[in-house]
Design goal:
Blueprint lengths: L8 E6 L2 H8 L9 E4 L6 E4 L1 H5 L12 H7 L2 E4 L2 H18 L2 E6 L2 E5 L9 H16 L3 E6 L2 H13 L6 E3 L3 H10 L10 H9 L5 H5 L3 H7 L2 H10 L16 E12 L2 H21 L2 E12 L10 E12 L2 H15 L6 E13 L17 H14 L38
Parallel strand pairs: 2-4, 7-8
Antiparallel strand pairs: 1-6, 1-7, 2-3, 5-6, 9-12, 10-11, 10-12
Length: about 425
């Protein structure tokens, strides 16, 4: 008798998350088609179920579907990342209370480790209870897929969304049910199977998830990769992927945005680079890392070939690793001066931090005095605390007081959950 412990995972995925967050505080839009737009209100990045039913694709530029938006009364929203992040945190907090271990996979998805839970309660009933609790406590609807591996849990979640009769909860612990579902799923819909792999697999007659599950794992490894071999084993109920409880350390931090309009003024462009540097430094401290490499880039729009084109990136190495915004701003400003060329209409700029060190774990230069600023850690900590509190904002003058280059967000909804003045009012 095999003494190995029977694993069980649940994937909980929020339905149409960005659009659902927007509808949550607008009950008048409950049955109205809603889309959320990307930075500068450029492309559709989220769709409600009503919009999906109209056949409007993800990623399509807004100007291409203006007629459809007007015809069907589609309501558009600019991306409200503060709202989405806060609602995501509320959902994840509930899920943490429901399972012994949790992996936050993305802003709207999480894996739960349910190993052993089936000994004390029915897993299907458990999944329905989790769904009901998240629905009631946050107003966000979710789908739940339960299976012995993470890959099968992904497919179970896919089925929970695809088939209304499931009530948005699918238990795929039974091997016979697994095979029935795998036979219905195209191989391209299997988690981790990309477009290139799909084309190669279909050329070999592997068209469904069941075909892939029946493939020889060793042959798949030799022809494709060890990653796809693990997928084959996972499809057969052998757990090869454990929960990632700790986020992998980032190797670089990039802060970049397209501007709300083409920028020609050097001062405006300098303010944008200072803003991105400040944001990147804040993320760096959030990772509890120091960096030694700073890169700055600016470019014109490649989508307007009739205009003069310019694109360049420059990098510099600091003498000592730092997370002090002031040090990074000083380097970024020097790089910007070397980059900037007059006579161009700039569309985008950004900053990249790299070459990370853990705090206190790097070799000092013996020929250079310690250049760390006095009380740097305390000052940066106070700034971050104020800026994260929602009660005020501290910034460097180099960022500008009222930047004209900021993203275009003409359809931005209120910060319903993170700003007192934007709390919904009931009369």
């Amino acid at each position: 008798m095999n003494g190995a412990k029977k694993t069980a995972f649940a994937l909980v995925d929020c339905n149409n998350f960005y659009a659902s967050c927007e509808k949550l505080f607008r009950p008048d839009l409950k049955h109205t088609p809603v889309v959320v737009l990307s930075n500068n209100d450029g492309c559709i990045v989220a769709r409600s179920k009503e919009v999906k039913a109209l056949g409007i694709k993800m990623g399509v530029p807004m100007f291409q579907v203006r007629d459809a938006i007007k015809k069907h009364g589609i309501v558009c929203f600019s991306s409200n990342y503060a709202l989405y992040a806060d609602m995501s945190n509320r959902v994840m907090t509930i899920l943490e209370e429901e399972a012994p271990r949790l992996e936050v996979y993305s802003i709207d998805e999480a894996f739960l480790d349910l190993t052993g839970v089936g000994h004390v309660t029915d897993l299907l009933a458990f999944g329905k209870g989790v769904k009901a609790k998240v629905d009631q406590w946050t107003g966000i609807t979710v789908g739940v897929g339960i299976a012995p591996t993470k890959t099968l849990a992904k497919l179970a979640n896919h089925a929970a969304k695809q088939y209304p009769a499931t009530g948005s909860v699918v238990d795929l612990m039974d091997p016979d049910r697994q095979k029935r579902l795998l036979a219905l799923v195209d191989v391209s819909d299997v988690w981790g199977v990309g477009r290139r792999a799909t084309a190669k697999l279909k050329a070999r007659g592997v068209n469904t998830a069941l075909d892939l599950a029946n493939a020889n794992p060793k042959s798949i490894r030799s022809e494709f990769s060890v990653v796809l071999e693990r997928t084959v084993r996972e499809l057969n109920g052998v757990s090869c992927l454990d929960l990632e409880l700790l986020r992998p350390t980032k190797q670089q931090i990039i802060c970049s945005r397209s501007f709300g309009h083409k920028v020609t003024d050097k001062r405006e462009l300098r303010e944008a680079i200072a803003k991105y540097t400040t944001r990147a430094a804040e993320k760096l401290r959030g990772e509890k890392r120091l960096c030694r490499s700073v890169s700055v880039f600016i470019r014109t729009s490649p989508f307007v070939p009739s205009e003069p084109q310019y694109s360049k990136i420059l990098s510099a190495e600091l003498p000592c690793p730092t997370d002090d915004t002031r040090d990074l701003l000083a380097v970024a400003d020097v790089l910007f001066d070397r980059l900037y060329r007059a006579g161009y209409r700039y569309a985008k700029g950004g900053v990249m931090l790299a070459d990370f060190y853990e705090q206190g774990l790097f070799q000092q230069d013996f020929l250079r005095a310690d250049s760390a600023r006095h009380h740097s850690k305390a000052l940066m900590g106070v700034m971050d605390t104020i800026n994260h509190s929602g009660l005020g904002h501290v910034f460097f003058a180099s960022q500008g007081v009222s930047p004209q280059w900021s993203m275009k967000r003409e359809h931005l909804s209120p910060a319903y959950t993170t700003k007192w003045d934007d709390l919904p009012k009931v009369w």
